[in-house]
Amino acid sequence: MTFNVIATGSDGNATIIDDSIVVDIGVPFKALKHHYKRFQLVLLTHIHSDHFNPATVKRLALERPMLRWACCEWMVEPLLDAGVYRKKIDVLTPDTTFAYNVGVSITPFRTPHNVPNCAWRIETPNGTAFYATDCGTLDGITAKDCDVYFVEANHVAAELERRAARKLDAGQFAYEIRAAENHLSQEQAVAWLAENMNPNSIWVPMHPHRERTADEQSTTDGPSDEGP
Fold first, then answer.
1. I need a labelling partner for 174 at 20 to 30 A (CA). Which of 42, 68, 206, 216 fits?
2. Which pTM does this prediction carry?
3. CA dihedral angle for residue 118, residue 97, residue 200, residue 136, rounded to 10 degrees
């Protein structure tokens, strides 16, 4: 199985698997210009702008009118609004496996965040991957023996708690509190992976923490992700 993490984090997300499957479209179109002609399937997780860029989605739908888009029901309206034809959208139910093509199957798992969100298990003829970012926990989800795990390791819990405490003591807004609720810590990721990985599995840490500027902290109620 091959993969290419085009971007991960609060500035944008897009990961390409086996050159043909892309998970999340949260980047400018130019970031995909050397890859998009090989795409066969797009998987979407949630509406936050660092995972869903409407302008890029619209351009991609225009450039590749036969491209399939797979999502859970909460992403259907945003896709339609971005110009994707309804007949090109495969709406999946969480915990249900969809056979997309010969040797390719996909399964979404609903994950807790501050908006409806899902993780994906992706099986291709070249291997199996599990993708999960922007989730408060992976408790209750099992994905044994995948070849590659794209799993969020957003922050070290103790460090985030210290930052929040310093800001609260100074009378400042501490976005770290919501970040801890909505993002998987390194400790959570390691514990979950220990229960699911085999000795040959690869872990690709996703969505790392980035300290926010004062201006970014003042706009936490916008359409993009709340947190690092």
1. 206
2. 0.86
3. 20
